[in-house]
Amino acid sequence: MTTKLAWRNIWRNKTRTTVFLLAAFFGFAMALFALNLMKSISQQRLDDAKNLQTSDLQIHKMGFQDDKDITLFIPNAENVIQKVKENANVDVVAKRISTNAVAASPENSIGCEIKGVEPTTEREISVVQDFLVEGSYLSTDMRMPILISKKTADKLKLKLKSKIIITLKNTQEEIVGGSFRVAGIFATPSTPFDENTVIVNYTDLQELGSISEPQEIAIKIKDPTKLIETQSGIQETLSAEYEVNNWKELLPELNAFDAFINMVGVLFTIIVILGLGFSLMNIMNMIVQERTHEIGMLRAIGQSKFKVFSMLLNEAGVLMMIGAVSGILFGYVLTLIASKVGVPISSGLDMLGIRPVMYPKLNPEIIIMVIVIAKILTVAIASIPAYRAMRIKPNY
Amino acid sequence: MKQLIKLAWRNIWRKRKRSVIVLVSIAFAIIITISLRSLMLGNGDKMVEAGVKNVGYIQVHTADYWKDKSINDLLLDDDKLIDKINSIEGVTQIIPRLQNFSLAAGDKTSKASLVLGIDGDNENEFNKVKDRIVKGSFFTSKSKKVVIAEGLAKYLKLTVGDTLVLIGQGYQANVAAGKYPISGIVKIPNPQMNVMLVYMPLSLAQEYNSAFGMCSALMLNIKDKSQTNRISKELKSKLGSNYEIMTWDEMIPEILNGLKIDTTVFTLLSSCLFLIVGFGIIGTIIMMALERKKEFGMLQAIGLQKSQIQTVIFLESLMLGITGIIIGLSIAIPFMIFMYYHPIPLTGDGAKSFEAMGAEPIMQFGIKPKLWALMSFIVFCIMLIASLLPIQIINKQKVAEAI
Q1: B276: which chain A residues are within 8 Å (Cβ-Cβ)?
Q2: What is the per-residue pLDDT for A184?
Q3: Which chain B residues have a beta carbon less than 8 Å from that of A253?
Q4: Taking all residues of chain A, what is their mean pLDDT, rounded to a whole number?
Q5: β-strand A197-201 against A216-221: which pairing, if any?
Q6: Which residue from B298, B185, B218 is spatially nearest to B55, judged by alpha carbons?
Q7: Which of A381, B140, B212, B391 would you call most buried, defined as having the most Cβ atoms within 10 angstroms of its Cβ?
Q8: Distance of CA B314 to the CA centre of its chain
Q9: pLDDT surpasses 60 at A349
Q10: For residue A353, what pLDDT is reported?
Q11: Is B273 in contact with A272 (Cβ distance < 8 A)?
Q12: Which long-range contacts (CB under 8 A, 24 or more apart) does B11-16 make?
């Protein structure tokens, strides 16, 4: 009986229904959009920093991490790569030569970490190519190409196609040097990466350092939530001579930063929920307020307090359901559109090292969270005004 | 007009519950948006604070020092210069530093390092450098010992009590070389610095570099960070072109960049929040107007002009809006001030992130009256837009139907 009455009430006063529905609709759409955007931006920053500096997992020979000694290469690397690829959660595997070197120009010299990479696989695992500000990725047209950061270029006063001398210790512990040409200059969001890293072709560095095996194997995994399982799975297939680390171990600062951002995210979510909840509750209060007369009448003709309460509860519940479901759908569509068109973040700021346009990915967790929020809010928003209405006296 | 104001005033008091609901929704919008912005502001302040601890708010160098940071471009650390800087209002502390690159060597390995001569006590007062000690103890200003960064110690395989060998080029091409016992090991938040920093007492560094009575930078601490630009300008005009004056944002542009990105992101997010609370306010106002359709019709029937009723409604919105904003601010401001002095402590990994940056692990709320004014202004505009809707409703309504 009360359900029927509630349903009819909703349709009886269309303006009232529309006002509430619109507020719920836009409210939920915006909440979903904003929370998802926030999550995407922090996720993107984290992923970029991670993919630039380490990728998900890395394999080294035990002891290499301490001072990046070139002689601590990975024995039987091809064999190891084969074994790693057998793991179901492994997406891309890339081998790298990695060691400390000195990069010098006629003007200056700096210590750096040089990485020899295979361009085709490296492009799938790292994102350096997205942050090139000048030139192009390691191309085959140029002899001995090198990628350096804007910071390094400024310090060494280098331009595109300038010569740069790399000096390093080869595997026979002799000092060797080679000249590279600047093929591209990058500026990434990761300051440590920019300050420290230069990138060259695997084969070029192999020749220069008389290196037969790589020092580092980087692994990108398919499902990031199974990081630890994959890590231990790989470690099990390899002997104790090899060390498998995940990015959280390799980059403790980044992991800590991630935890901090998550905390900001939680606070933001609370603020949004409170904002949305109170807005809708106020409208609902106003609706009940407007209907004091009507509710008094119902009571006067003999409806019990409880029936009035349950009628209003039903009304608000149905309204919230329609508003929230359509709002969440709309927010979903908005996010989909944004993921295609992009949300400009740094337009007009003219900055290096950040992605100027953000393409928010849809996070299933966020959708689930918003749905849960909607459920909780429905109960709160429906019951508090209904409770107030219950106390209206028939003689009012 | 006086009559209409009176009418609006009485309308507000006639239906108190209704007015309270409107007030609550406005006040809440203010509180919510200010909380978000303050959180963001406090966060930004933290980033700046962490960066400023390394370079100071302002640095004074000899002209063109910063570009090459050459050991030959030094300042004479004399009383005349110090007095001149001290005479500027707002400067609370002057911290001299002498820095130079040298080769640091242990038993078997060697590494390029940054030798930083500091006045230990003075420096500690500004950035608590002595708290970063993880092993051993900090040197006293007269001692001949050094403190090295954790990463460097690990690389050189040295520990407290061992001897560090330094060799490099000192002032005016003098040879700089020496053997120094290590009195302590510090952990430096910046990973690059953690593998290259050597702290030395200032007087010892001057001796090592043959740069007696000189320093490469004077780092300034100031009373109020919003005065940075004013003080920098005054310094420039007072000291002349022989000196280079740099502010923290010129020395560490990354932090300013980070702040700019955060600002755009948060502006985007708070616009979404404004849409949410805005719809709340507009919804409440429309409901209020709908409820009163009959009343409006009656007023018209007894002879009021539509424009008069609209003025009454507008006045009511204005009064409620302003009161709501005042209530909101009077809750939000004390709350923010309370949060400012009682920040939320962080635990776990999030706390480590702050410690890694060299900042206290707390979630700080910022205080900025300009921001409060801006938020109030936006909410007020939303209120005005909302009040247009009832005006529209009155415009359209026909007396006979309304009654």
Answers
A1: 26-27, 30-31, 272, 275-276, 279
A2: 92
A3: 191, 353, 356
A4: 86
A5: unpaired
A6: B218
A7: A381
A8: 40
A9: no
A10: 65
A11: yes
A12: B11/B312, B11/B316, B12/B316, B12/B319, B12/B320, B15/A289
For B226-254, write each residue's pLDDT tens digit.
889 999 999 999 888 889 999 998 888 77
**Considering only residues 46 to 105 of chain B, which have any Cβ-Cβ distance to chain A shorter than 8 Å?**
none
Instruction: Please work out, in degrees rounded to the nearest 5, the angle formed at the alpha carbon of residue A253 by the alpha carbons of A252 and A257.
Output: 115
B52 pLDDT more than 70: yes
How far is B202 from B205, CA to CA, in rounded Å? 5
Helices and strands (H and E) in chain B: how many: 16, 14
Taking CB atoms and an 8 Å cutoff, what residues of chain B touch A285?
21
Mean pLDDT of A220-244: 90
The secondary structure of A291-335 as a DSSP string is THHHHHHHHHTT--HHHHHHHHHHHHHHHHHHHHHHHHHHHHHHH
* Average pLDDT of the segment spanning A14-27: 88
Q: What three-state secondary structure class fits A167? A: strand
Percentage with pLDDT > 90 across chain A: 23
Domain ranges of chain A: 2-49+256-390, 55-250
| Average pLDDT taken over every residue of chain B | 87
- Tokens 């001290």: give the residue: B86
Among candidate residues B98, B113, B96, B122, the one with its CA nearest the CA of residue B182: B113
Pairing of strands B175-186, B133-136: antiparallel
Nearest to A276 among B21, B276, B290 (CB): B276
Q: Which of A259, A280, A346 sits opposite B280 (nearest CB)?
A: A280
Query: Looking at this predicted complex, what is its ipTM?
Result: 0.77
For chains A and B, what is the number of CB pairs under 8 angstroms? 167
